[in-house]
Specification:
9 strands; 14 helices
Length: 362
C-alpha cells in the first residue's frame, strides 16, 4: 500500500514538472519579459519602430539612473495608472494595500496626462491593485494611448469584460488574466466573490474575438497562483490554455501570511511563498515614471503614498513635480544607498524595504 501511494505521488509530481516545462509556460527567457531594468533590446525595438524620441528618452533615463542624477532632463517613460479602485472580489491576500472603493479616474484627466506625456511614454500599466475593466471608458483609454504609440497592459480578474471585440480592437497589448483554479471549488477559495463559469466564458470569448478579428494582440496570459489545494491542476491548466488559445501561462507563488503557510503553501519548491520582501540593488522609479490613482492623486510608487500632485493638475504642474524637491530627494537617497541593502535616513526611498522589487515591467 505504501509503495502504491508513493508511486502515485511520484507520478503526479512528474506530470506537474512535465507541464511546467511546456513551451506555453512563460519563463524569464521568453518574449513575456517581466524585467524592469533598462535594456538595450528595448531601445533597439523603439528605434526599429521609428520611435526615436522615445528611444533617446529611454536611454537618457538609464544614464541618469546610472549617474544618480537628482535633476533630470528626460521625461518619464512609464505610468502605472488605476482607472478605478473598484473591484468585485475579496481576495484574502490581495496585493493592494489600499481598500477598494468606487472612484473612477475622469477620462478628461487621463486625456490631459496622456497628451502631456504621451510622446515619451513607452508603456502604461492600467492596474495597480483594482479591476480596470470596470471603468466604463477603458477601451477609449487604451485606444488613446495607442495613438501615441504606447504599449498597454492590464491585469484583470476577467469577471467583467466589456465587449470582447471592442477590447481586442482597442489595441491592448497584454492582458494578464488572474484565474487560480479550473473548478468552482478551487477557483473560489482565493477569488472570493468571483464567478468561475463567467470567467472561463470570458477567457474563451476573448480568444475567439482575437481569432475572428485576425489579430495577435492582446497577448493573453493566464496568471495562476499556486497553492497547496490547486497545485495538482497544473497539467490540466496547461492543456486547457492550449485548447482555449491562451499565449502564455504564468504559475506564480502567492504571498501567504506566515500563520497560513502550513495550510496553504504549495509543496512544490519553486512555489514556496515569497514571504517578506527582500531588498535589491536596483530601483528605477524616481527616474522612470509615476503612479496615477482614481482618487485624484499622483504618487511616486506603490510603496510611497505621499501625494505629489492632484492628477487633474499633473499636466499643468508636471515640471514642478518631476524635478520637485521630493523626487530629487528620492533620487539622492537611492543613489546614496547604492547597491545592497543599506539604508539612508531622511527620505522614504532611503529606508524602503522593497527597493528594486517593484520596478516597471518594460
Amino acid at each position: 500500500m505504501q509503495n502504491t501511494l508513493e508511486t502515485g505521488v511520484s507520478s503526479v509530481r512528474e506530470s506537474i514538472e512535465s507541464a511546467l516545462r511546456d513551451s506555453i509556460v512563460s519563463r524569464s527567457d521568453s518574449e513575456l519579459d517581466l524585467s524592469g531594468k533598462i535594456k538595450a533590446c528595448r531601445a533597439l525595438k523603439l528605434i526599429r519602430a521609428g520611435q526615436w524620441r522615445k528611444a533617446a528618452n529611454y536611454a537618457l533615463a538609464g544614464l541618469s539612473r546610472r549617474l544618480g542624477q537628482e535633476r533630470v532632463f528626460h521625461m518619464p517613460f512609464a505610468l502605472g495608472l488605476d482607472p478605478t479602485n473598484a473591484c468585485q472580489l475579496s481576495c484574502p491576500f490581495c496585493i493592494s494595500s489600499k481598500p477598494h472603493g468606487s472612484d473612477y479616474l475622469p477620462f478628461e484627466t487621463y486625456e490631459a496626462i496622456i497628451k502631456r506625456l504621451g510622446p515619451w511614454l513607452i508603456k502604461v500599466d492600467f492596474c495597480t491593485g483594482a479591476e480596470p475593466l470596470l471603468h466604463p471608458r477603458i477601451c477609449e483609454m487604451i485606444a488613446l494611448a495607442k495613438r501615441y504609440g504606447i504599449e498597454t497592459a492590464i491585469a484583470s480578474n476577467i469577471n467583467h469584460v466589456p465587449d470582447p471585440a471592442a477590447l481586442v480592437s482597442s489595441g491592448l497589448d497584454l492582458l494578464m488574466m488572474s484565474v487560480d483554479g479550473i473548478s468552482p471549488e478551487t477557483y473560489g477559495r482565493y477569488r472570493a466573490g468571483g464567478d468561475f463559469e463567467k470567467v472561463m466564458a470570458n477567457m474563451r470569448a476573448l480568444a475567439a474575438a482575437r481569432r475572428r478579428l485576425g489579430r495577435n494582440r492582446p497577448s493573453l496570459v493566464w496568471n495562476y497562483l499556486v497553492f497547496s489545494y490547486n497545485e495538482h491542476e497544473i497539467p490540466e491548466v496547461v492543456r486547457l490554455a492550449r485548447e482555449i488559445g491562451v499565449d502564455f501561462v504564468t504559475f506564480m507563488a502567492p504571498y501567504i501570511p506566515q500563520e497560513r503557510r502550513a495550510e496553504l503553501q504549495s509543496s512544490i519548491p519553486r512555489f514556496l511563498s515569497p514571504g517578506s520582501s527582500q531588498p535589491s540593488d536596483y530601483c528605477l522609479w524616481p527616474w522612470s515614471g509615476l503612479l496615477i490613482y482614481p482618487t485624484n492623486r499622483v504618487c511616486l510608487c506603490y510603496e510611497d503614498s505621499l501625494a505629489l500632485s492632484a492628477a487633474d493638475r499633473l499636466a499643468e504642474d508636471f515640471d514642478g513635480v518631476w524635478n520637485g524637491e521630493y523626487l530629487r530627494g528620492a533620487r539622492r537617497a537611492l543613489a546614496a544607498r547604492g547597491a545592497g541593502s543599506g539604508t539612508v535616513e531622511g527620505h522614504n526611498c532611503g529606508v524602503c524595504r522593497r527597493k528594486g522589487e517593484i520596478n516597471f515591467c518594460i
